[in-house]
Design a protein that fits this description.
- The chain is an all-alpha fold and 197 residues long.
- The chain has a single domain, classed as Tetracycline Repressor, domain 2.
- Helices cover 62% and strands 0% of the residues.
- It contains nine helices and no strands.
- α5 runs antiparallel to α7, α7 packs across α8 and α8 runs antiparallel to α9.
- The protein starts with 11 loop residues before the first helix and ends with a helix.
- Keywords: DNA-binding, Repressor, Transcription, Transcription regulation.
- One of its GO terms (molecular function) is transcription cis-regulatory region binding.
- This is TetR family transcriptional regulator.
- It comes from Planomonospora sphaerica.
Length: 197
């Protein structure tokens, strides 16, 4: 009889990964600490050792996970801003189940650091009022992704028994050239507006 494999140690990363899977496949409403514990094969109370504030901390961690984006500075501020917007869009599209959290939770932890980093990059590249520009860019990206997810036909499923088609972000074979073109067109207009401001 083969020896049993030792259980994989519980970690904050494993908890977040399992929570993202539940939110993306079953909907954020179905993400409970008990269901998360079942998915991780641990008692729900074990999760609190890694997230002492429980579900509040989990929701913050999920929002941070999809909004803490970093890019290397480009040749000028427009290139840096464009790469940041593309990376943010990709991160948000990867996990539509927690999009609502990204839209409503203020940046904390790594997400707040990423916003500061982006502001500093744009300011150092010569963009006046970089903080205002970052707010406008974030609003555009978040709004654009919300519209994309809505138009894709993906809706938060009520449970695993739903027949709804799963959302497939570009990295998993989904996405469309039209959505990409719309996003880039809007981004061009926003960057042009920032240049005139």
């Amino acid at each position: 009889m083969p020896a049993k494999r030792p259980p994989i140690p519980l970690s904050r990363e494993r908890i977040i990964e399992a929570a993202l899977h539940i939110a993306d496949s079953q909907g954020l409403r179905r993400l409970t600490m008990r269901r998360l514990g079942d998915a991780l094969q641990v008692e729900a109370m074990a999760i609190y050792h890694h997230l002492p504030r429980g579900k509040d901390a989990l929701m913050d961690a999920l929002a941070e996970h999809v909004t803490a984006v970093h890019v290397e500075p480009g040749g000028d501020w427009r290139e840096t801003a464009r790469e940041w917007c593309r990376a943010s869009r990709a991160a948000l599209r990867e996990h539509p189940g927690v999009l609502a959290l990204a839209l409503t939770k203020p940046p904390k932890g790594q997400a707040a650091m990423a916003v500061r980093e982006q502001t500093e990059q744009l300011a150092e590249a010569g963009l006046p009022d970089a903080a205002q520009a970052v707010r406008a860019l974030r609003a555009y990206v978040f709004g654009a992704v919300a519209v994309e997810v809505q138009q894709s036909g993906w809706a938060e499923p009520a449970g695993p028994e739903d027949d709804a088609e799963p959302w497939l972000p570009p990295s998993r074979g989904g996405g469309s050239a039209a959505a990409d073109a719309d996003f880039e067109r809007g981004l061009d207009a926003l960057l042009a507006g920032l240049t005139r401001s």
